Every structure is written in structure tokens, then in C-alpha cells.
UniProtKB/TrEMBL annotation:
Its EC number is 3.6.4.13. This is RNA helicase. PANTHER family: ATP-DEPENDENT RNA HELICASE DBP3. It is found in: Nucleus, Nucleolus. It comes from the Eukaryota. Residues 221-392 form the Helicase ATP-binding domain. It comes from Zymoseptoria brevis. GO terms for molecular function: ATP binding; hydrolase activity; nucleic acid binding; RNA helicase activity. ATP-dependent RNA helicase required for 60S ribosomal subunit synthesis. Involved in efficient pre-rRNA processing, predominantly at site A3, which is necessary for the normal formation of 25S and 5.8S rRNAs. Residues 57-69, 126-136 have a biased composition (Basic residues). Its main location: nucleus. PROSITE patterns: DEAD_ATP_HELICASE, HELICASE_ATP_BIND_1, HELICASE_CTER.
Length: 602
């Protein structure tokens, strides 16, 4: 009871709670309980008030720091705006003034309200800061752009400038590029690597060794990147591997579970060469390119196929794997037939058809054919399996007829069969002496036994020489070719197995000890020199045994504007008609036959 009387507030609260009168007079333990409760409530209220004051102080400290930081930003923005005020346009100056007014208004409202409406003032201030920064950015835009150009290269997503229509026409005329497109797309050539859809590190890894795209690459890339089927008619050594390799790398996912790209070539050497070039493209992206060909263990190749996104193969071995179920091409959506005319000439047509039918349907597949000539057999295959293809021809040979490289100097020497060996040694001595001792020379023979004999004859005369023909193991052929490419061995004796597609740089001379069975093979043989825009020379021994091919050879020489020996003209200029394998000289190509006309009677 004493506690209630000593604290009027507690006494009042007790009266307010309408305590029984007996409590106020004599029942002091109940009143004491109410006193303790009231005292505890007061202590809790005081503690809450003290905590609230501490929290307010902390908030105030944070607010003061924030205001100081914002004032610094305002000063920086104002300084930037003043520095660039002279270069601002009317709209920019208005934006800057509006930002300053809103800043001043926000500050005045904050002072006037004396701490009230803090949230509204902060919003207005934030908006003012944004507009001030925007104005300063507009003012300094030109200067910052100039600084970026002068500084180190910065990664950009914008594409390089493409060729205009007039520039594209001039480029096509200068490089002798012909484009036949039924859709009339008229896509501009890619004359710079900067235009390709790759980042800078990838471009550097791919194209650091090249100055600009070759004509076949520049003309074909726009159509291939647009997923069009394509036929490329170009001489060997024109850069066809990168022409079809770069677009397919661009479309492949980094982690594929299936084979999606299949490249078919006629010979083992060419297949290995393509794989070597493709590996340069796949390695930076973590992809795997595998080469399969005959003459080696199948089990090893089956293991190599696993995890491959790209397969480079010869037709025979690829069909073997298809028949035994060791390979699945059903997911292949990018198919390349390289040296298509050569594969059809050597009897691979049925194998090619089986391979094409094993891939994805034509509607889901992009199909490419690269060829040095454009014979009826290639046209028929293209019309059957390609969807509305674009045909690109490099050089002035729009019809795709057989022509020799104009940069190759051709010398034909008519002689007796028994004089060839001595003349061969004289030529080698002439072109393998003095400063020309390390020049690469490719010697062609017709048969494997002849190649072995010629190689031994040259070696006995003290020349460093290697051989490549069908009787050698694949490992030996690979070693010989690698030694010749590196320059370790400057002389290479070969049969026609090495005549097509091989990219052997800097071959100075091609020596045909024995003339091939066809003029087409002759053109492809001498095509090993004069590659990549360089000049070359070819010396050919011609005997009485090959007189039936004299007329066709004379035509090739005349078209290439090369001198024709009088001894060669004596054999005559008649061109022997090409015979069919089954029907002989009486065969007539269906494309050349007249269509039947329907006759109606009245």
C-alpha cells in the first residue's frame, strides 16, 4: 500500500483498473503485485525508448555519410557539366539546367521540412543525380569515343563493314569469280576476316598466317554461313579446305554426342591433309576431327571415332564401317564431297550414293561439292542430292571444262622411250644444283613398279629422295610425305595416288617421266605446282606410246597459251572420244541425247 501512495502514477493506474477497495485498505500483497507489474512495464518502456534513440542515432550517422557522398558526386557532376558546357547542344544544356533545379528544389524542401518527408526528398535527389550524370555523359561522349579509339583494342560486338555492291562487282571481276544463284541472293563477298562471326582470339588462332581470304573462301562463305548448298569449281590449292571448314566449325556445338560433319575425299593422303587443316580449326573450340581410311587397323579407327564431331574419310573405308554398323551418320547435317569429279572417275559413285543416303535427310542437311571440273557425271549427282545449290566458279572457266593452271609453264619433250632415264637425271641435276638444291621436285610415274625403279635410280645417283605409291604401307607413305613437305627430302617419286588435292607448298617443278592414262590426270598432276598464286613449271616426257592422247594434250596447251612442239603436232590433233567403262566408244551420254518428241496423228 505504501508503494502505491509513494508513486501517484501507479496509484492512479491502480484506481483506473478499478481495484477492490479492500485492496487499497488492507490487502497489500495484491497491490504490491500490481505495483511490481507496473514498474516492470515502465522499465521496459524506458529500455525501448533508449533503444529507439540509439537506432535513430545510427540512422542519422548513415544519413550524414550518404549526404556527404552525394554532395561529392554533385560537385563532380557540376564540374563535368561546367567543363563541357561550351560543347553542349541546346537540349543537353536544358537537361543539365533541369537537373540542377531539381537538385536545388530537393535541398530546399529538405531544409524547410526540417527532417520531414525524407523519403520524397531522397527520391527527387536521386532523380536529379541521374539526369545530371546523363547530361555529363552526353557532354563527354565525343571525347570518350576518341579515347577508346586511341587506346588498346576493345572487344566489340559490331561487325566490320561489308563490301558494297560496286566493291563486290569489282572484286568478282578482278578475281574472275562467277556466281550462279537461282535465288539471286547477290551476297557480298567476305573480303576480310574481320567480317566473320568469330571473336578476336578465335580469328587470331585461325587466320594469323593469312593476309586475306582466297577467292573461293571470300565468295563461298556468305552462302555457306546462310546454310545454302554449294558447288565450288576451283583449281587445287585455292584454299577449299578452309572454304568449307570455317562455316562448319561455326555451327558445331562445343559438346556434341554425334558426328555432325562428314568430309569425303578420294585418297588417303588428301584425307589426312584435310584432317590436319581441320584440326587447326577444331582445337581452339575443343572439338575432335578424326580421319578414317583403308590400309590400317580398323579397331584403332573404331576407337578414334568415339567422341568425334567431324569425320574425314575415304569412300571405301567409310562404307565398310557403315555396313558393319561401326559408325552412325544419321545426325550428319553438313556433308562435303571434296574432289567430287575424281571420286566419280575412279568408280566411287555407288559408294558416294550410299554415304549420302546414310546422312540426315536433304531438308535437314547442307551439302557441298568441290571439284576441279564440271563434267556431266558431277552435274547429275549434284542435281539429285543438292537443294537449289549456288555454283561458284573461280577463274575464267565458267563452264568448268578441263583447263591447266595459267601460272604453270608447261614444257613437253617428245622422245624415245629408252632416252627418258638419262634425260630425267639431266633435269634433276639442272634443277637440284647450286642455290636451287633445296627446291622441291615431284616426279610422277605411271605404275608402282616403275616408281620403285625410278626412286632407286635417283637414290643411287646421290639425290635425297622418297617415294609414295600403293605398294608402300600407310605409315611409310605418311613419313615420305611429311619429309617432303618439311624439306628434309627435296625429291618425291609418286604415282597418281598423290596427284589430286595434296597441298604440298612450294613445289618448284613437276616432272612427268611417264605420261598418265588421261589428259585429266595430266592436268591434275601438274597442278601440284603453281599453287596459292605462285608460278610453277612442269616438264613432261611424251613418247610414241601416248600418241592417242596427243590431240587432247595439244588442246590443253593451247588453252593455257603454252607452246606446242612440232614433234607433238606430227601425231595429229584428233581428240579420241572418251569411252564408257561398259559400253566403250559407242556410249552416248544421256545429257547429250535429244529428247523424244511425241508424234500425234490427225
Amino acid at each position: 500500500m505504501q508503494g502505491l501512495k509513494s508513486d501517484p502514477l501507479l496509484f492512479f493506474n491502480a484506481r483506473k483498473k478499478k481495484l477492490p477497495r479492500i485492496d487499497l485498505q488492507g490487502n497489500s500483497h495484491i497491490c504490491n503485485n500490481h505495483y511490481i507489474m507496473a514498474k516492470r512495464q515502465r522499465e521496459e518502456a524506458e529500455a525501448a525508448a533508449e533503444l529507439s534513440d540509439t537506432s535513430n542515432k545510427k540512422q542519422k550517422v548513415k544519413k550524414d555519410k550518404k549526404e556527404k557522398k552525394e554532395k561529392k558526386e554533385k560537385i563532380a557532376v557540376e564540374d563535368a557539366g561546367q567543363d563541357a558546357a561550351e560543347t553542349l547542344s541546346k537540349e543537353e544544356r536544358k537537361a543539365l539546367k533541369r537537373a540542377k533545379k531539381e537538385q536545388a528544389k530537393a535541398g530546399a524542401e529538405e531544409t524547410q521540412s526540417n527532417g520531414q518527408d525524407d523519403e520524397a526528398a531522397a527520391k527527387a535527389e536521386k532523380k536529379a543525380r541521374k539526369e545530371a550524370k546523363k547530361a555529363a555523359k552526353l557532354a563527354n561522349g565525343g571525347a570518350s569515343e576518341e579515347k577508346t579509339e586511341d587506346s588498346a583494342p576493345v572487344k566489340t560486338t559490331s561487325k566490320a563493314k561489308t563490301a558494297t555492291k560496286s566493291e563486290a562487282e569489282a572484286y568478282f571481276a578482278d578475281k574472275q569469280i562467277g556466281v550462279e544463284d537461282s535465288q539471286n541472293s547477290s551476297l557480298s563477298p567476305i573480303i576480310s576476316f574481320d567480317t566473320l562471326p568469330f571473336d578476336e582470339p578465335t580469328k587470331k588462332a585461325y587466320f594469323s598466317d593469312f593476309k586475306e581470304p582466297s577467292p573461293i573462301q571470300a565468295a563461298s562463305w556468305p552462302y555457306l554461313l546462310a546454310s545454302r548448298d554449294l558447288i565450288g569449281v576451283a583449281e587445287t590449292g585455292s584454299g577449299k579446305t578452309f572454304a568449307f571448314g570455317v562455316p562448319c566449325i561455326n555451327r558445331l556445338p562445343k559438346s556434341g554426342k554425334h558426328i555432325q560433319v562428314c568430309i569425303v575425299s578420294p585418297t588417303r593422303e588428301l584425307a589426312l591433309q584435310i584432317q590436319e587443316q581441320m584440326t587447326k580449326l577444331t582445337t581452339p573450340r575443343g572439338l575432335k576431327a578424326t580421319c578414317i581410311y583403308g590400309g590400317v587397323n580398323k579397331d584403332e579407327q573404331r576407337q578414334m571415332i568415339k567422341g568425334s564431331s567431324i569425320i574425314v574419310a575415304t569412300p571405301g573405308r567409310l562404307n565398310d564401317f557403315l555396313q558393319e554398323g561401326s559408325i552412325d551418320l544419321s545426325h550428319v547435317n553438313y556433308l562435303v564431297l571434296d574432289e567430287a569429279d575424281r571420286m566419280l572417275d575412279t568408280g566411287f559413285e555407288q559408294d558416294i550414293r550410299k554415304i549420302i543416303l546414310s546422312t540426315a535427310p536433304s531438308a535437314d542437311r547442307q551439302t557441298l561439292m568441290f571439284t576441279a571440273t564440271w563434267p556431266p557425271s558431277v552435274r547429275e549427282l549434284a542435281s539429285e542430292f543438292l537443294r537449289d545449290p549456288v555454283r561458284i566458279t573461280i577463274g575464267d572457266n565458267a563452264s568448268g571444262e578441263l583447263r591447266a593452271n595459267m601460272r604453270i609453264v608447261q614444257e613437253v619433250e617428245v622422245m624415245d622411250e629408252f632416252d627418258k632415264q638419262n634425260r630425267m637425271l639431266e633435269v634433276l641435276k639442272q634443277y637440284q644444283s647450286g642455290k636451287n638444291k633445296s627446291d622441291r621436285i615431284l616426279v610422277f610415274c605411271l605404275y608402282k613398279k616403275e616408281a620403285t625403279r625410278v626412286e632407286e635410280t635417283i637414290r643411287r645417283r646421290g639425290f635425297k629422295v622418297a617415294g609414295i605409291h600403293g605398294d608402300l604401307s600407310q605409315d611409310k607413305r605418311t613419313q615420305s610425305l611429311a619429309a617432303f613437305k618439311s624439306g628434309e627430302v627435296p625429291l618425291l617419286v609418286a604415282t597418281d595416288v598423290a596427284a589430286r588435292g595434296l597441298d604440298i607448298p612450294a613445289v618448284k617443278l613437276v616432272l612427268n617421266v611417264t605420261f598418265p592414262l588421261t589428259v585429266e590426270d595430266y592436268v591434275h598432276r601438274i597442278g601440284r605446282t603453281g599453287r596459292a598464286g605462285q608460278a610453277g613449271r612442269a616438264i613432261t616426257f611424251f613418247t610414241q606410246n601416248e600418241k592417242g592422247l596427243a590431240g587432247a594434250l595439244i588442246n590443253v596447251l593451247k588453252k593455257a597459251e603454252q607452246p606446242v612442239p612440232e614433234e607433238l603436232m606430227k601425231f595429229g590433233t584428233t581428240v579420241k572420244k572418251k569411252a564408257h567403262d561398259a559400253y566403250g566408244a559407242f556410249y552416248k551420254d544421256p545429257a547429250d541425247m535429244k529428247k523424244a518428241t511425241k508424234i500425234t496423228f490427225d
